[in-house]
Amino acid sequence: MCRWMAWLGQPVLMDELLFKTKHGIVAQSLHSDLGAEPTNGDGFGVGWYGTGSGPGLYRSVAPAWSDANLRDLAAHVESPLFLAHVRAAIGSPVQETNCHPFRHDGWLFVHNGFVAGFERLRRDLMLAVDPDLFPLVQGTTDTEVVLHLALTFGLREDPIGALERAVGTIEAVAARRGVPAPVQGTFGISDGTAVWAVRYASEGLPRTLFTSCDADAIRRLHPENPRLQRLGHDDRLVVSEPFSDLPGLWREVPPGTAVTVRHGDVLEERPFTPRERAVSVATGPIPDTARG
């Protein structure tokens, strides 16, 4: 599938986590231990928040390990919150508009997994997207459609709730089209102030997802490691698979769980419960007040 990571905490040069970590995201693009495919070389992307308005974005169809521009950019851009993604394409073309993260206004969105039978579901799902958002879908991936469904269903006000409604709508459409177990994977979302992450599968075990433990515990466990000693109170990582095998650094997110990470060492978990949102192909989502 793919691999992704999110960092929220003190400002760091991105290459500290992209290139200089032993089993960081670029190393995982060459060899993933826990992914469905060991190599993720069908493009990459990184989105970051800094001093400008909204997130910056750099995406390419080149493998992450061979892109000199990424290496140079990452060595000079410092950010307190960024998302990175390396892609293993399954069904959609290798093109820049299909590389993650996807950006809308101040939002970034990544996904590891798939929507099964997407070619059979795409038309119905696209017609459920708000008409004002419909022209903004530029690529051909299932992930970009999920993002625009979530935007349609209230991402700005309630990111996890909007994603629950998006996934629930996909499952309902799939049931009508005879597509079993349509949703698989993990999702990452940010607006520049927080990171929301979800681990979910309609059926079976979802793709892996981990969060770093709190910085105080990590520093106590590994006083010999200067890099870990620099961790601050707010610093958190959300990753598809751990960056190292040092004990006490990582906690696996349970299946069917949504995680919220905020500044102030806040990490909250709640069940992720998809639910269908009634839609009209002519007008988009039906307001809750209009439903019986």
TrEMBL record:
Enzyme Commission code(s) on record: 3.5.1.118
Broad class of enzyme this protein falls into: hydrolase
InterPro entries: Gamma-glu_amide_hydrolase, GATase_2_dom, Ntn_hydrolases_N
Residue ranges occupied by any Glutamine amidotransferase type-2 domain in the UniProt entry: 2-264
Pfam families: GATase_6
Origin: domain of life: Bacteria
Keyword vocabulary terms for this entry: Hydrolase
Protein name: Gamma-glutamyl-hercynylcysteine sulfoxide hydrolase
Organism whose genome encodes this protein: Capillimicrobium parvum
Native organism taxonomy: Bacteria, Bacillati, Actinomycetota, Thermoleophilia, Solirubrobacterales
Annotated gene: egtC_2
